[in-house]
Write a structure and sequence with these properties.
This protein is mainly alpha-helical. The protein is built from six helices and two strands. 43% of the residues lie in helices and 5% in strands. The chain has a two-stranded antiparallel ribbon with strand order 1-2. Helix 3 (41-54) crosses helix 6 (117-129) and helix 5 packs across helix 6 (117-129).
């Protein structure tokens, strides 16, 4: 009995479907980065304001991924309260670079909207308050 020949387009669709659920990880050198911005009340306040403006609509007020716009993404927004395996550098990289899958924006990149890198690090400081940081 002959095996059916799958058209290349069908194989590509199947492969992309399998990859769509993969973990979104930053490169090792980005994960190793640490914030150059020291924690302070002013830094956290700025980070909180940036979170409210750019992140809360998808990630929700407490970072659980339950914001009002969460359903608009092809992949559910991440739960920012679970940070056991996420470093400061990885959060910074994700905020800066965003994520696209198959041409669709899953998470926008914010290096164009939050152009000051220190402000993106302040956002990272705030995001760290939403959950448990990576354990040593």
């Amino acid at each position: 009995m002959r095996r059916p020949r799958w058209p290349a387009a069908m194989l590509l669709l199947m492969a992309s479907a399998l990859c769509a659920g993969e973990a979104w990880r930053a490169p090792a050198e980005e994960r190793a980065r640490t914030s150059p911005v020291p924690p302070s009340e002013a830094a956290l306040a700025k980070g909180h304001a940036l979170y409210q403006r750019h992140c809360q609509s998808c990630h929700g007020g407490t970072g659980k991924g339950d914001g009002k716009a969460a359903g608009a993404s092809p992949r559910p927004p991440g739960d920012l309260t679970d940070q056991r395996d996420t470093s400061e550098g990885e959060i910074f990289w994700k905020v800066s670079r965003g994520l696209k899958e198959g041409g669709e924006v899953v998470m926008p990149r914010f290096d164009g909207e939050i152009t000051n890198a220190d402000d993106r690090w302040k956002l990272v400081l705030y995001v760290r308050t939403l959950g448990s940081p990576k354990s040593p």
